């Protein structure tokens, strides 16, 4: 049984590595040579918009999924309509995740608190947005933003003008700046027959817009319950199949939805060693109509992203209980090239070990 | 960094799957099409004795290992002598593991209790062996035995004659029949600088000569200590690099070495989910000179082999906490086509769940 993956990044790579023990085969589509998933599975080389290649992928696979939320929807939808191919998660969720305005509207429609926002397509609209939302705020592209790209913090009218000059060629969104106490994410799967399985809440620390550290389980149980309720609403809304993630700000104990990702998520990498079933295996189970696996945590986990370049292998492997995941990527500033995970019996021991690990890696983030 | 594997069976497959997260690449050599490891890594197709292919493998890999103990040593040794290739574990250990007489002599030399035995090359020697060792006993080929193949139990002179007719074309060994209380195995790694790491003792149940069930940790701590001492002697003797396994009979609380395997072992598959570092990752760490990982168990594990044909995926995956491993093999009677593992907090819960799993799989073995 072959699973197709549009995109051959590290998420695709970890999907394939989770699927081989289940006896699955994989086929990726990605324009990049030396793509992380292409090193562990066959790959079709070409553009995400190449309908001939998309059709070949769909015809050769039981089900096709994606490992990147910015995969163009139009071509995929057209090919799926013409063929008998099955795509999971649903393209409606993919399309929503690609457009910050559609995302905000969905959160509002489902009664999920989110930031105040205003669509911005002109300098006039930007002025109106500043009037209505106030300062500070964040000007973001509606599409193609990830890891802090396509965003500018706006603290003054002058900064707003500068941000408009930088980003204004694309449709934008102006959002209130949330002075959050912490950031969390909830990850869960919806499978055949509407069964759902939700992982423990993740506490996330970003640096320069990129996730640096995740702790799980995180926060009081009422955050977990609230986040799981919001997640379930989105899963049901889309009659979803697969793993879905929602990121939240937490301000004075209230969850404020920031964005959703219709895929496995960086903040869920700890589940490989830290949960009974990993997010990658559960995504595959969900899209293939297999029973979902338990999301029970096996302890207290910390996941640290390796950004830019990998430290020498021995440096990390000599630390007891550190699980290394390299993605097979060339080094580049700001690039996620791997991660490592620790799982401990108590949160105190986890935090102590995470602190040592962050120090050894010279990662300057504070454990929340 | 590329690791070569002579043999592309399920052990090679699981080595590759453990090595990808470490950023390693793999290249296998195996004559079989559709080999388990060849489905997840590039494969050179050809005979294990093809020196041209062996030379190519050695020249393209940082280090070459093997996933089967019956890989012919002569060709490998000749190619290694001529080239700059590095082979781990040492070929001396591989050669010993291939010859039951060499194995017995090694155990005796290192003071490791083993069964009484007698080499048999003629009907006269068989008579002498029966006189000296008595009945019942087991007549075995010196070479190429695995999973109960190349063996015959001998309970009478008539059976001895029949066994001779069946096996007598090859050099043989006659061994006492051990009326054991249970069977155990010890698995450990020796790495760079002579560091060693030993896993908890495994309790093994065979059926028709094939491993059906492993429980770990198993038995009193003095068995563990004794087995680890014996294992360490063998590791030091060979100045070993990699994972080594010794199987023992236990009779009246005493360990009696049965055989050694210079490789990762079926009775260690539980370590993928059941230990901090799997036997596969530790084998790679050891042969690459990386620090060894912790062998600490994460709970009480049971591993059940799937023999002959796989049950439908959903049957196993609907059982909570069951980790499935399919090897990508076509069904065939008596063939190991996969395994599954459960890890529980207590041995009582592990045993209860294992019992249910064995019943669901219609595997007729008793939990020791």
Task: Walk me through the structure.
Two copies of one chain form a homodimer. By secondary structure, chain A is an alpha+beta fold. Chain A folds into three domains: 86 residues, Rossmann fold, CATH 3.40.50.20; 61 residues, Dna Ligase, domain 1 (2-Layer Sandwich), CATH 3.30.1490.20; 179 residues, D-amino Acid Aminotransferase, Chain A, domain 1 (2-Layer Sandwich), CATH 3.30.470.20. Helix content of chain A is 32%, strand content 27%. Chain A has twelve helices and 17 strands. In chain A, strands 9, 10, 11, 12, 13, 14, 15, 16 and 17 form a nine-stranded antiparallel beta sheet that branches. A four-stranded parallel beta sheet of chain A has the order 3-2-1-4, sandwiched between helices. A four-stranded antiparallel beta sheet of chain A has the order 5-8-6-7, with helices on both faces. In chain A, helix 1 crosses helix 10 and helix 2 packs across helix 3. The N and C termini of chain A lie far apart (43 Å). The model of chain A has no long low-confidence stretch (mean pLDDT 94). Chains A and B meet through helix 11 and strand 16 of A and helix 11 and strand 16 of B.
């Amino acid at each position: 049984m072959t699973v197709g993956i549009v995109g051959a990044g590290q998420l695709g790579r970890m999907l394939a590595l989770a699927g081989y023990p289940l006896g699955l085969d994989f086929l990726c589509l990605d324009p990049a040579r030396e793509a992380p998933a292409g090193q562990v599975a066959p790959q079709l080389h070409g553009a995400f918009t190449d309908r001939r290649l998309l059709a070949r992928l769909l015809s050769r696979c039981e089900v096709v999924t994606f490992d990147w939320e910015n995969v163009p929807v139009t071509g995929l939808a057209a090919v799926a309509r013409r063929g008998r191919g099955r795509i999971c998660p649903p393209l409606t969720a993919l399309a929503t995740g690609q457009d910050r305005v559609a995302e905000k509207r969905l959160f509002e429609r489902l009664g999920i608190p989110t930031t105040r926002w205003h669509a911005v397509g002109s300098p006039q609209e930007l002025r109106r947005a500043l009037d209505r939302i106030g300062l500070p705020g964040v000007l973001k592209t509606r599409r193609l933003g990830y890891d802090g790209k396509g965003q500018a913090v706006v603290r003054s009218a002058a900064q707003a003008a500068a941000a408009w000059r930088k980003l204004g060629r694309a449709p934008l969104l102006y959002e209130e700046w949330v002075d959050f106490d912490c950031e969390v994410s909830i990850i869960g799967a919806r499978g055949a027959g509407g069964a759902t399985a939700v992982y423990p809440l993740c506490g996330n620390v970003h640096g320069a817009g990129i996730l640096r550290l995740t702790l799980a389980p995180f926060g009081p149980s009422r955050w977990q319950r609230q986040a799981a309720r919001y997640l379930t609403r989105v899963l049901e809304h889309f009659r979803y199949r697969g793993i879905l993630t929602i990121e939240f700000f937490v301000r004075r104990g209230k969850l404020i939805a920031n964005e959703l990702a219709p895929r496995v998520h960086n903040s869920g990498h700890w589940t490989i060693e830290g949960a009974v079933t990993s997010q990658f295996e559960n995504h595959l189970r969900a899209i293939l109509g297999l029973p979902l696996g338990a999301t029970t945590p096996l302890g207290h986990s910390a996941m640290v992203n390796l950004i830019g370049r990998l430290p020498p292998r021995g440096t990390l492997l000599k630390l007891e209980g550190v699980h290394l995941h390299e993605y097979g990527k060339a080094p580049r500033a700001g690039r996620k090239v791997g991660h490592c995970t620790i799982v401990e019996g108590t949160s105190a021991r986890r935090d102590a070990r995470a602190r040592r690990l962050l120090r050894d890696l010279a990662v300057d983030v504070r454990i929340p």
